[in-house]
Design goal:
alpha+beta; SH3 type barrels; Alpha-Beta Plaits; 3-stranded antiparallel β-sheet; 17% strand
Amino acid sequence: MLTPSLAARCPLTVGSAPIYLAAMHAALPSVQAQVSAADHRPRTLAEWRSNGADYAVDKGIDVGGVVISIFALWYLIRFLSRRIEHRGTVGHDATMHGAREQRARTAAKLVRSLGRAILTVVGVLMVLNQLDFNISPLLASAGVVGLAISFGSQSLVRDYVTGFFLQLEHQFALGDVIRIGAVEGTVENITLRLVYLRDASGALHIIPNGQIAQVTNLTRSWGRVAVDIDVPWADADRATVAIGRAAAALGVDPAWADALLDPPRVVGVEKIAGGAVTLRTVARVDPYRRDDVARDLRARIKLSLDAEGIATFAPVPVPMA
């Protein structure tokens, strides 16, 4: 109610009140029409018979637009992941044996996995919204459920957080040979929660990321071959020459040119014990071909020692009293 005191305090507002009320009365029918048009879902069987086809066509178009948008974004994510993989294949150092390429493949895989999960959740919510379902309770419930999961499944959350930082810091990638605790093997798959390792016997080890306290990467940048040979004390000098000859022959072999980063060499006496002298031969190699180089080096050393008539040291058994 407009009192004289109110009119005296707010002359402009009170004077303009009829204009504002007239504008609101004029706009009210259009607002009501828009609300009724937005909520035109048939409620009864008679409404479905009269307007059901039009409603289905309209909602089909809306849902189709959402689905097309989701698929367009998915193809964009796939394109970005392929670009990431492509960038990893160009310009990397040959001595790294494609370490950059492996990191790129790992990053691309994580981008696809994360993008697929996000698009699935967002797509489902948008489709429900287009079908006139009220998704506010779903969002509120999702928040409550997420909070409950964060408290009740702390190990699961730790797995995801650790997996994220493992990949962010590039501690290992697909194809790397790593050691986690007592398990050593080749990384076959990586997710934000799990690491899949295939050991030398073919067994597959599945390790939650939250349980990883220390990672030893055996194939980062370069590897080292170390071959120890025990020979009798008296034959140590001749054995050193024979082993050095075998190492030099492997170093000039063209078949191993791309695997050897430094030629193999005899570093000398590693240990003396019980009448035996341990001679060590080392070589810096491509980490992914370390075992192959070590096998061939052992075979060449054996042939060279056989040619010199030198047998490896065997301890003399002590007779039982």
